[in-house]
Amino acid sequence: MDVFVNAAVSADGKLSSRRREQIAISGSEDFDRMDRLRASADGVMVGVGTVLADDPSLTVKTEDRRVQRLRNGRSGNPARIVADSRARTPPDAAILDGDAETYVLVADAAPAERRETLVEAGATLIEAGDERVDLAGGLEKLEAAGIDRLMVEGGGELIYSLFAADLVEELTLFVGSLLIGGSEAPTLVDGEGFVEQFPQLDLQSVERMDDGVVLSYDVE
Ligand code: NAP
User: Is the peptide bond before 155 cis (omega within 30 degrees of 0)?
Assistant: First the structure.
């Protein structure tokens, strides 16, 4: 499976403010670039923290791109995937609006009642891991379900775990011209952080866009 991360960060590397509300970091050109990337993917993944904070729908916004996908024999939108060990995704979340298939990766520890609620709301559950979602195992099961190209949109906890498990091939960042600050504000890579072996990136391109810059890396 081809896994790539795309996110927008402030010049100081923050995904959001300490209030964890969605912030307009990029502009219309970058939204269009992100929409094109979504349209190229079989699945778009976030952590449950992002679902709870932003309630994103993760669908392709441009009709032409959805039509093109359908012409190519694909679904109009890529599948939506949430890493959600305890099935905390609210059943009325936008990712369960029926506009695309939705997979919720849960751990063994997810309570049966919440699992049932999510299945009733239209989610397909994939179990991987005991206490927390085992991402390598979950991604294998997604690949078996036909997801070969996976776009990860955040947040920082999920991105850290994917890098820690050596599962990411490419990283694309829009770096906006603003500062957010705050030691409690989520950054691109949160979690425990790395202390000895740091993931190394190979810079592929630098492009000015909106009022910021798009950096594209391969992960070594
Ligand atoms: P997150 O990464 O979206 O979700 C983290 C949660 O995912 C964890 O708390 C965990 O909850 C669940 N999870 C399940 N398995 C996991 C695993 N193996 N490793 C890590 N997490 C796992 O949340 P976040 O870091 O709090 O980020 C949310 C913030 O990022 C929001 O403020 C949002 O606005 C921002 N954001 C910004 C962008 C951008 O491009 N600027 C994009 C996305 C999000 P359980 O243990 O309960 O499963």
Answer: yes
> pTM for the complete prediction?
0.98
Q: Is the CB of 158 inside a 6 Å radius of any atom of ligand 1?
A: yes
Cβ 134 under 6 angstroms from ligand 1? no
Of 158, 178, 210, the one to substitute when testing ligand 1's pocket (max ligand atoms within 8 A of C-beta) is: 158
Which runs of E-coded beta strand occur in the chain?
A: 2-9, 43-47, 79-83, 102-106, 124-127, 149-154, 170-175, 201-209, 212-219
pLDDT 10s digit of each residue in the chain, 220 long?
Answer: 999 999 999 999 999 999 999 999 999 999 999 999 999 999 999 999 999 999 999 999 999 999 999 999 999 999 999 999 999 999 999 999 999 999 999 999 999 999 999 999 999 999 999 999 999 999 999 999 999 999 999 999 999 999 999 999 999 999 999 999 999 999 999 999 999 999 999 999 999 999 999 999 999 9
132 CB under 6 A from ligand 1? yes
**Separation of 73 CA from ligand 1 center, angstroms?**
32
